[in-house]
Write a structure and sequence with these properties.
The structure is a homodimer. Chain A is an alpha+beta fold. Chain A has two domains: 4-67, Arc Repressor Mutant, subunit A; 73-229, Chorismate lyase (3-Layer(aba) Sandwich), CATH 3.40.1410. Chain A is built from eight helices and nine strands. Chain A has a six-stranded antiparallel beta sheet with strand order 3-4-5-8-7-6. A two-stranded antiparallel sheet of chain A has the order 1-2. In chain A, α1 (4-17) packs across α3 (41-53) and α2 crosses α3 (41-53). The radius of gyration of chain A is 21 Å and the shape is globular. Mean pLDDT of chain A is 87; it is low at 73-81. β9 (227-233) of chain A pairs antiparallel with β6 of chain B. Chain A binds a DNA duplex through residues 1, 3-5, 26, 29-31, 39-43, 45-46, 48, 59-65. Chains A, B: Keywords: DNA-binding, Repressor, Transcription, Transcription regulation. Chains A, B: One of its GO terms (biological process) is negative regulation of DNA-templated transcription. Chains A, B: This is Trehalose operon repressor. Chains A, B: It holds the Pfam family UTRA.
DNA sequence: GATTATAATTTGTATATACATGTTTTGCAA
DNA sequence: TTGCAAAACATGTATATACAAATTATAATC
């Protein structure tokens, strides 16, 4: 099946990004959109709810779907955006240094990933260089029973691309934490810290669509180069 | 109107929090829930989508709604949680020091809030003390045309409570940014920095349901006491 | 012309049906 | 007992209708 409402969502996102609808303006009414896309109003509403959820529009009862100004948050470290997408969006030169790609057994991480204590995990350690400076250190632990093979080429190119497109694993959600911590010896070795004594640490547990815990990631950023941008909707009730 | 699906959402959240459904288990099927709540399946689905969106469940096709383990992220600085909710959840003693409550005209902030350049803004500066240490400095700019009156009591007690419950303004969404910056003289004066030379800065633009930009907030945290926890769903397409 | 009442427009909620798609269970057959 | 096919079950998508509630446009009245 094609999932009409997803198609309509993408069409409308493109239209907004092309400037067809400016911020402050309203989209065509649900009724008009449904005749324009030859579909029912409920299907249009599903597409509009996606737009609303992702911060493209605000629906105002009796008025319409008002287009929001997304200019102020064009840096989505948010969501589950990967390093590759990120640096491409920045338009800066980037490199990835693979420092480790090994199989390990770490009972503590296994327990948090809900896999057997003796299970093998891939440990991937990569330094990210942007604009000539190594500013991010990524430490990944991935269940080997779900990803049997990993090569240096894969982790250097795009791990997520391999996992989602080659292995066709359905990455669905993540729990993440952002804190600030003192630098470790590892940070000193692999990063250009420029005198900084603390790093911003993003720890994530990544889950597949079937709720399988899949990966634990620790992303360590030099504080002056760190930015997290988010769109948050208030849950009513 | 009562909004059945909101009611059902809250009922199910309470049930999950009471441990009626354990993580890993599935909720009753949509069909069973609809007969249990005497409503249609679509209404149940709206409630379940809210649960899914807020990280309580993961819907798995053909299987059911699997309850997720929320233990690992019980510290939602996320969303738009206010300081009061936050410290109460922490269960620690807290105090608010009001250092400033004045009307100012700041063209730059006015422009970003889309209000006339000459408009008056409330500037509220508060230091937050938790466990005997002043670790958060909140600087708020609020449009006076939307909030005509503010007193020291209000900003000391709960600003959001006043705005939402007394003025009945409908706070709907926010754009926020998290960065790390050097401490300012102001930070030195109002916070117990304990030798830290950087603070975590959360800048937020807060909007009402009718898309009116309403408030700009800068929340400055001592890095060792800062934590941001989030549940992020991957947008498909 | 200004104010007010009415109608039209637009989004929100609730319900119903049909069929698609993925999972689990059941039952039959080898 | 094992293996496979079919049925039962669960969620996903698409469509339709009716009414509620908020806003905007229109018309009527003073």
């Amino acid at each position: 099946m094609k999932k009409k409402y997803i198609e309509i969502y993408h069409t409308l996102v493109e239209d907004i990004q092309k400037g067809e609808y400016l911020s402050g303006e309203t989209l065509p009414s649900e009724h008009e959109l449904s005749s324009r896309f030859h579909t029912s109003r409920e299907t249009i509403r599903k597409a509009l709810n996606l737009l609303s959820h992702n911060g493209y529009i605000q629906k105002v009862r009796g008025k319409g779907s008002v287009v929001l100004d997304r200019d102020k948050f064009e840096f989505p470290v948010s969501g589950l955006t990967s390093f590759k997408e990120l640096s491409e969006r920045l338009g800066q030169s980037f490199r990835t240094h693979v420092h480790e790609l090994t199989l390990v057994k770490e009972a503590k991480i296994c327990r948090q990933l809900n896999c057997p204590a003796g299970a093998s995990l891939w440990r991937v350690i990569r330094a990210r260089e942007i604009g000539g400076e190594r500013i991010i250190l990524d430490k990944d632990y991935i269940r080997q029973d779900l990803v049997p093979e990993l090569t240096k080429e894969i982790v250097q190119h795009s791990l997520y691309n391999y996992i989602e497109n080659e292995l066709e694993l359905d990455i669905s959600f993540a729990k993440k934490e952002i804190v600030v911590e003192p630098v470790t010896e590892e940070d000193e070795v692999f990063l250009d810290l420029k005198g900084h004594h603390q790093v911003v640490v993003i720890r994530s547990y990544v889950y597949l669509a079937d709720t399988t815990a899949f990966q634990f990631t620790e992303s360590r950023h030099r504080p002056d180069k760190f930015q997290f941008v988010d769109f948050a909707r208030r849950t009513k009730g």
